Structures are given as C-alpha cells and as structure tokens.
Amino acid sequence: MHHHTRIGIIGAGPAGLTLALLLQRSGIPCVILENRSRDYVENRVRAGLLEQNTVDLLRDLGAADRLNVEGLEHHGVILSFNGQRIRVPFDELTGGRGITIYGQQEVVKDLIATALYRGIDILFEADATLIEGIESEQPTIHFTQNGLVHTLSCDFVAGCDGFHGLSRKTMPPDSYREFRHEYPFSWLGILANVAPSSDELIYAYHERGFALHSLRSPSVSRLYIQVDNEDKIEDWSDERIWEELSIRLGAEGWALERGPIFEKSITPMRSFMIDNMQYGRLFLAGDAAHIVPPTGGKGLNLAVADIRWLAEALIHFFETGQTDLLEQYSSNCLRRIWRAQDFSNFMTYLFHKQAEHGSFENLLQKAKFDYIGISKAQATTIAENYVGLKDV
Ligand code: RFL
Ligand code: PHB
User: Fold this and answer.
1) Residues 87-107: what's their mean pLDDT?
2) 77 partner at 20 to 30 Å CA-CA among 60, 97, 124, 167?
3) Active site residue 279
4) For the residues of 224-236, what is the DSSP string, one character each?
5) In angstroms, what CA-CA distances link 113 with 104, 296, 324?
6) What is the average pLDDT across 376-380?
C-alpha cells in the first residue's frame, strides 16, 4: 500500500516522538514508523536524568502532567573518590537550574499517549527497510507491517531510529566523517524495589571500579557498576552486585539499603560521532547520529536538543519556503553534541578505574577530583555541564 505525508519519521523514541508533537502543533502532517511494539518501547529501561531544557520542552508540549507530579527535582550531586565525598550544589552554581529524575520509559509513555490523543499516526511494528530518493524532493520510505510491504512518500525523512537504525547507513559514506571511541569497561545496571539510600545521585570512583547510585521513585533505586567488557550477566549474582555496590559507594556513617532486584542488564560504553547529520532531504537526530557514554546523563537530552533545531528548521521552511535553517541544522546541533561528548568523556575517565590504584595516572585522577573541592570554578564547570547549558 502507498501512503503520503509531509515528514516521515523513523523511530518512536524520545527524538521521533518530540519531533512529531512539535510538527503537529504547527499543523505539519507526519507519520511515525516504529519497528517495535508499543508495549516494547514503553517498557525499555534506559535513561533517567532529564536536563532543565528537556523538562521545559515536555512542559511546553503539554506532555508533562505526570512528570510534574512524579519527577524528582535535584539541586545537587554527590561525587565520591574512594569514600571521600564532595557535594556539588547546582542551585548555587548555575543560578537555580537543576535536573529531574524521571525514567525514559515514562517519558516515552507520556509522549505516545499525547501524540495518539492529538491524532498523530504512529505505526507500531512497522519496520523501515529502505529509504529512497533523498536527493529528490519526494523521498520514499519502504516498510513492512503485518507481513505486507508498504511505501511512505514524504517531503522530508527524519531519521530518529537510534544507533542501529537504517537512516545513518542511507547517508552516502563520503558525506560524513565518523569518530568512534570504545571504553575498556561496561556498565551493569539494576533496578531494585528498595527506597533510595541517598536523596541525591552519587558518582563514585573506587579502587574496585566505578559505581553510581540513582533512583526512579521513592521506592525504586537505580544503580550501576563498572564491569569488564567480557563479563556476562550470569557472572553477577544479586548478592555479588549488592556487595560490590556497598563497597564502592561506601562512606563513613552511610549504608546502602538492599532490596529485590527486578531488572539487570549490561551496556557497553562508547562514544560515537559523525560530523554531518543531513544529506538532501534526510535529517538524522539523536542516537542515530551520536552516542555518548552514560556517565554524563546526556543521550536523551541531546536527542531532544537536536529535535528543537530540526523542528524549528522544518517549520520555518514550510512557513517561508526558505532553506537557511535546514542548511544550518548539522552545525547548530554539533556544537552541543561535541560539548556533551567532552563532558561525558571527562566524567567517564574521572570516575572509572583505568589504571592501577596508586599509579601516576590514578593519582592525576585523584588530583582532578580534589580540584572540584578546592575550586569553585571547577565545581561550576561540572555543575553547568551536568544540568545542561541553556544555549550552546
Ligand atoms: P532510541 O530511543 O533508540 O529510539 C530509536 C527508535 O527507532 C526504532 N527503530 C526503527 N523503527 C522503524 N524502522 C527501523 N528500521 C528502526 N530501527 C530502529 C527503535 O525501535 C527505537 O524505538 O533513540 P533516540 O530517540 O535518539 O533517543 C536516545 C536515547 O534513547 C538515549 O540516548 C538514552 O537512553 C541514553 N541514556 C541516557 N540519556 C540521558 O539523557 N540521561 C541518562 O541518564 C541516560 N542514561 C542511557 C542511560 C542509555 C543507557 N543504555 C541502555 C544505552 C543509561 C543507559 C544504561
Ligand atoms: C539513571 O538514573 O539511569 C542515570 C542517571 C545518571 C546517569 C546515567 C543514568 O549519568
């Protein structure tokens, strides 16, 4: 069957869904193709840290009723080095900006519900298999749904299909340069039914490796530990995970509460970049174009930041016929993406174990940590990057 719309969006993650809502608000028709089921995307456990800009956009879109009630606002973060802790107060250092903890799958549920309520077409279990004609004015997306082959012709294609998606692979190989950095460790993440042991997030270096204490609600904790790239989930019993978390996050007079673990997975750490996110009528956004290690909490926030630029450029084009903002799309996005790459890389190397404890490299790492406590300038650098720069 053949379909037509103005903007064909591939992917119903945070990027694709926010784009659809921004376009619909300006009266621009779009269709979202998502190869997974609604249930799958609504329950995929991932990020949890929303920057102020992201929260502001979700509010502006009218998709934040639940976020306003259930989101947990944080005004500081705790950094730890082998048990020694420093608190970085965002409020004081960034003029009142902060972060909100709210699970990505909750964001996705809210965005899907809002989009469907507003009549946006989201085709679930619709697998995009080919994008044709990106150099023409009417590109076509081929997709399959329920065993049938369909085509969707449109004015523009928004590739919001994540790191493994089809869109980036459709860009001519000589239209961009690619940068990859693999880290020699992974994160094992858990969700547990236990009240968080800390009101604020704790990022910890320990001589046994990194650990992060985060949360999802007053009764659910989210925790991560550094593991080897070769480690399998079967190597990590619940008992071993709690033991390791307690040691790595430990500080005098503080104890980690334990509870039943109901989610456990291992994620590799990588940085990935391309230096051009558009070709003809195809525009990439979010993980389709860049991956940052999760230590800075930036991935979802970058996806939403790309979409602000893309929506503005597309709306401007349909209102005026001018292509200037579309032409500037990549360069506008790349400033923030490189900033986030640098911050995520900095946080990753500051808190992960890479060298023998007590070695020269490790003592430099300690010196960098100590400097946060000594210098308000350094603490401000961390705070403003962590809550997210308002304009980049
Ligand atoms: P997504 O969410 O991957 O969505 C892409 C969608 O495209 C669909 N798709 C296709 N659909 C149709 N046809 C095809 N051929 C398709 N190919 C793919 C996929 O099914 C999917 O639904 O990308 P998007 O929208 O760019 O969003 C990016 C974020 O999901 C990602 O950056 C974050 O989860 C990263 N991240 C974090 N980001 C933060 O901002 N703060 C955090 O605290 C944070 N913590 C994390 C994270 C990611 C993690 N993992 C598991 C990678 C913690 C972890 C552990
Ligand atoms: C999370 O709560 O899942 C989370 C928080 C901060 C990060 C990464 C993940 O840096």
Assistant:
1) 94
2) 60
3) no
4) EEEE-TT--GGG-
5) 14, 28, 33
6) 98
Per-residue confidence band for 55, with pLDDT thresholds at 50, 70 and 90: very high
Q: What is the mean pLDDT of residues 1-21?
A: 97
The residue from 176, 203, 205, 279 that is catalytic is 203
For the chain, give the mean pLDDT. Answer: 97
Residue nearest to ligand 1 atom 49, measured at CA: 46
Contact present, 266 and 191 (Cβ < 8 Å):
no
Q: Is 183 among the catalytic positions? A: no
User: For the range 85-92, what are the long-range contacts, defined as Cβ-Cβ under 8 Å and sequence gap of 24 or more?
Assistant: 85/202, 85/251, 86/369, 86/372, 86/373, 86/379, 87/200, 88/372, 88/379, 88/382, 88/383, 88/386, 89/383, 90/383, 90/386, 90/387
All domains of the chain in start order, with CATH: 2-72+101-179+271-345 (3.50.50.60), 184-270+352-387 (3.30.9.10)
Pairwise CA distance, residues 20 & 34, whole Å: 13
Q: What separation in Å is there between the alpha carbon of 180 and the centre of ligand 1?
A: 18
Query: Taking the CA atoms of the chain, what radius of gyration do you get in angstroms?
Result: 21
Shortest-distance ligand to the CA of residue 344:
2
Structure confidence at residue 46 as a pLDDT band (50, 70, 90) = confident
* Ligand 2 centroid distance, CA of 295 (Å): 7
How remote is the CA of residue 213 from the centroid of ligand 2, in Å?
A: 8
Whole-prediction pTM: 0.96
- Relative to the alpha carbon of 268, which ligand is closest? 1
Measure the CA–CA gap between 281 and 140, rounded to whole angstroms. 10
- Is 298 a known active-site residue? yes
Which residues lie closer than 8 Å to 110 by C-beta, 6 or more apart?
A: 58, 63, 64, 65, 66, 67
The tokens of 128 are what? 């995009």
Q: Is the pLDDT of residue 391 over 90?
A: no
pLDDT tens-digit series, residues 177-192: 999 999 999 999 999 9
- pLDDT for 392: 86
- Gap from CA of 297 to ligand 2 centroid (Å): 5
Quick check: 321 pLDDT over 90?
Answer: yes
Q: Ligand nearest 124 Cα, by number?
A: 1
Q: Which of 45, 46, 49 to mutate to test the pocket of ligand 2 (most atoms within 8 A of CB)?
A: 49
Q: Check whether 351 has a pLDDT greater than 90.
A: yes
